[in-house]
């Protein structure tokens, strides 16, 4: 049995279908996060087998990041217009075929192309995973629990990706890190097949904003490209300035188009709500710190402490455990503290943990002294943020725009991650001055961790200052979500 979503013209699935929707959404979130890290450990083997040059190897990572980041807004809007289940199925099929092609790659170009197509599939999947949760579970404890699981799945995918990348490469070769996606995709497709329709809220006359889609895709892609290459080309180089300048011009044109079109890819009014605006700013700052920290913790373990690939993967497990613990706590704490206090506390704890990383990243460090404690504290804080962050990002969002809101949040995360990594790499390079000794490297990594701690502190401050006072409804943390009256939804299209 299915129930109508208030005012949305869509459907709210019954309990059994909602469970399968949740399974599918969590699997997708795990898969997308897994593939952001699983390939990194296998890069040396890939270079030796396919004959990549030093610069070409970076495109195994960048091709995925560019396609993923550039198409997130489009993927989210397609979920609103075509229905999240259709986009989920199409994205999974595309991702699975690209993974199979990557596992069978015969040349550098074929692997880079496969990774780019994977990124296209991921850009469809990431917004859908979040949108399905907000559509399947009404605002309140049920959605809080689902968002907690969503945060756990993302953290588990990132941590397992590092571990699985090392183990699969050691045991079965680098091709296994691509082929491992195929059974995961098959499971997600099976879960999707067991669900009913959900969230088909297309308004009459609504259509895809092609001009906005082209401008947003080109602008975001150039922005991510400029950021990921800035540390190599130099922030003041002509290439970096031209790339980022073109990105700004295209995104400015995108805003101008969105202000005029009746069916925008991203409705400008969406960001007028303080919870949505703050959630995206918080997500950008959080991702800036988290992506860079993952990168530098891995380098510190391998280049300073001398860990191998598999041991490095195991060293990330405490981080995963902390996020799981924080997410579990958040599902209950959000009803007591509210989103403002919980995001502030979570961001502050994460900042303290990152500062601990910075202080402990010494040349004579160890797992117990330098990794375990900081990982648990930082990840606990990050885990506390996922539930209130997801709630804030969908506050007052009408059912027909959940994909739009999800695409925006995921874009903030991807752009933030690229920006943070570029800035932190530049900081570390300035401190090391080109030296490669363990002492110089640990000093550079510590400087990067201090900057990441500052970004997390800024996120906590933004949540405290910008979010409105707590408004908790009986039985739930926030009296808001993707449920609105028919008149409100009609007005939202303008």
Short description:
The chain is mainly alpha-helical. Helix content is 77%, strand content 1%.
Describe this structure in words.
This protein is mainly alpha-helical. The protein has three domains: 11-141 and 155-197, Growth Hormone, Chain: A, CATH 1.20.1250; 210-264; 274-481, MFS general substrate transporter like domains (Growth Hormone, Chain: A). Helices cover 77% and strands 1% of the residues. The chain is built from 17 helices and two strands. The chain has a two-stranded antiparallel sheet with strand order 1-2. α1 runs antiparallel to α5 (108-136). The model is unreliable at 1-10 and 471-494 (pLDDT under 50).
Features:
single chain; 494 residues; mainly alpha; Growth Hormone, Chain: A; 3 domains; two-stranded antiparallel ribbon; 17 helices; disordered N terminus; disordered C terminus
Topology:
Elements: E1 3-4, E2 11-12, H1 15-34, H2 43-50, H3 54-82, H4 84-103, H5 108-136, H6 141-172, H7 176-179, H8 181-193, H9 210-233, H10 238-260, H11 274-304, H12 309-315, H13 317-360, H14 367-393, H15 402-432, H16 438-466, H17 486-492
Antiparallel strand pairs: 1-2
